[in-house]
Write a structure and sequence with these properties.
5-stranded mixed beta sheet, 9-stranded mixed beta sheet, homodimer, alpha/beta, 19 strands, 11 helices
Amino acid sequence: MVAFSEADCAHMARALQLATRGQYSAHPNPMVGCVIVKEGRSVGEGWHERAGEPHAEINALAAAGDNAKGATAYVTLEPCAHHGKTRPCVEALIASGIGKVVVAMADPFDQVAGRGIDALHAAGIAVDTGLMAASAESLNEGFICRVTHGRPFVRLKVAASIDGAIAMKSGESQWITAPEAREDVQRLRARSGAVMTGIGTVFADDPSLNVRTSGLNTGGLQPLRVVLDSRLRMPVTARMLALPGATLVCCSGDHDISPLQDAGAEVLSCVAKGRTVDVGAVLNELARRDINDVLVEAGPAVSGFMLQEEFVDELVIYQAPHIMGSETSRMFRTSSWSALADRKPLEIRDVRRIGSDTRITARVQY
Amino acid sequence: MVAFSEADCAHMARALQLATRGQYSAHPNPMVGCVIVKEGRSVGEGWHERAGEPHAEINALAAAGDNAKGATAYVTLEPCAHHGKTRPCVEALIASGIGKVVVAMADPFDQVAGRGIDALHAAGIAVDTGLMAASAESLNEGFICRVTHGRPFVRLKVAASIDGAIAMKSGESQWITAPEAREDVQRLRARSGAVMTGIGTVFADDPSLNVRTSGLNTGGLQPLRVVLDSRLRMPVTARMLALPGATLVCCSGDHDISPLQDAGAEVLSCVAKGRTVDVGAVLNELARRDINDVLVEAGPAVSGFMLQEEFVDELVIYQAPHIMGSETSRMFRTSSWSALADRKPLEIRDVRRIGSDTRITARVQY
């Protein structure tokens, strides 16, 4: 185990901070930050903004110029050794004459996985790994989930009153939460490769499910809109079909898909599982399409189904300071949970006030 | 407006702190604290422990002895001028030779209301009032509510999962929250003159509704247990009837009350209001019996009814970090709320972790 100094920690913390600048634009690539330090001072910083554009190390080396010689590079993820859309970062690091590289975590991606570190070692460059590894991992949880498990990280968002209601029985639900919470949902969407909903929500709310906030640096990315619609009832007039970004409608069985295709949707014929499409297969397909994070914004049926099937990794609850009472819809339809022992414990990770609402972020423990 | 110094604030803050020592034992009297200060130093402290025993001022004067002469007394509530169970405090203050009295708030109780301050003035003692009045008022909210509005302060407690469930549909509900939260409920009970429930909860849970925690200084007080039971179905075998403390069963119409009386209950025949007893009249009767604070611990029917009728002043929600799903009972049955506009906003006063649960204290805004 390498002993890291306080200065090491400060530089890596800065690199992690830089990495988060790519949170809305870097995916499907991981967020990465890099700081080059010479004689205790930062001489170059970089972060990865967008797939196909230079990696964090390249940007930091460019900023450092000749100062990179003999300096130490702090990188939040193992530098790549493979030719992807850009030249390998290890080549650039070696060419710069860098003296040492400190890496927060090895790249879980098969084509990199240790080879970047090996290549640096082979060039006689000292490499220390594991500094702030937990922070680096939590930064790219979706990416890591996809490349190691072949499925995206699934985050389920729900807006409810303090007594757990998401709508009146009439369907009236606009709005449960205040504008600040709805604005915060835009950030959840912007960090997701896909937003998933059910056909029931399309009928009830005709949602847009796009990123509308101009202040977020998404580089023009829009999450893929995924609609679970086993019987292909999706109306060609659905609002989301006319918006920037793509819509994927997942059905099962034989249907005439051409009207929806003409309306701009991609229709995916999926295996059925019971009365719904096989959501596990859909998630695998999304991972195959390089989607790291899926945000589920759906009604009680789909949300409850996702929980019962244990597909939900993280729950984000926006809790409004209201009592809505009994003539309302619940958050989750979970017909298979009949005993108290069926309940699912949550590990609360974060609680904070968003405007007048409370946002609770939790992991579901199955 | 009197200008108070930092030292004044510190002494009154101490007096308020002393007052809270009586939170489980002083009712139906208000909590009161007193600090006697001479030449900037505290020479005597006192608080009111129990009805019939000396008031805070008397205890503080006893501690101060001759040092009271020319000193300043900081009292959280206007000293009494009437002969109740004890001699008036103003007489003792005057006799002690006290130089000045600083009072947080005037006593709202008719028999005192300004007369204590007048009597001190008449004896040539300077009196300043209003220092930390808001804190003093919130300390004795129940007492103030009773003497000014003729009804107790009503606090409704509910234990629920994060998705708003209080039990499985089977009735299984033990336990939604962890031991720490249930222990905290003991403190809510201990500060209440009465605990109210419905006959449905008696049938479902056969609750004790008493204070069992030995660490609380209640001086032997038990809250009055009040059961809303319009058709007088209360079983003579109900657990609470055999426990220390009194039980009041509120029914309407003609019933044979002798079996329940023999089992130790008091049966109150109330006016009916629709299908239930007139809860407003019950609350007035409880105030007449000198009950400052009522804690409602009931099922969705009574809890929802209390909310719909706008009887609830404060809501205390113990929220367990679990998802219980749809095959469950809701917190409140509110059949008359059908539109989103019917929901009741909450003013959140306090949120804190109690063990693994979250306690939310809020005022209901009607």
